[in-house]
Amino acid sequence: MIFSFMRISKKEVLVIFFCSAFLALADNASSEILSVQGEKVSLRTDPDPKAKVIWEYGSGFPLEVLKRQGEWVMVKDFENDSGWIHKSKLQKGKAVIVKANPRGEKAINIRSGPGIENPIVANAYYGVVFSAQERKDSWIQVSHESGNNGWTKPEFLWGNLKGK
Description:
Elements: H1 10-28, E1 33-36, E2 41-44, E3 53-57, E4 62-69, E5 72-76, E6 82-86, E7 90-92, E8 95-98, E9 108-111, E10 120-124, E11 129-136, E12 139-143, E13 149-152, E14 157-159
Antiparallel strand pairs: 1-4, 1-7, 2-3, 4-5, 5-6, 8-11, 8-14, 9-10, 11-12, 12-13
């Protein structure tokens, strides 16, 4: 067996260290997630009530804050659509949305407890909005406005994945 060793300078080690530290910090940075307050809330091209409407959202829809300008907030949704919403139409919340299976052909399972051994109590398709309740191990408890609640894996969701 032949072994080959590379010589790395101290400068290269420092560059690798600082790049790794920066990426770790950037990955751990949490974005601010707000929820839509009201029905048919308009996402606009500019921070102006007369600006073109790009999209309309329903109550509870989660949005990531990109920046603020006066009374307006630039946001991005789980499909990367971005624009401006008046701050009066946004609130702090625990909203999450199903991001798995974007073609809508398959639902995610909502279980009675945090684990695959627990029975399935509901299914949810792409775009369904929930409120995140709590995290336990690698599971998140969600509740729907219909009254359904249960547990699922956070990798199927987008939004405020912290729970309580």
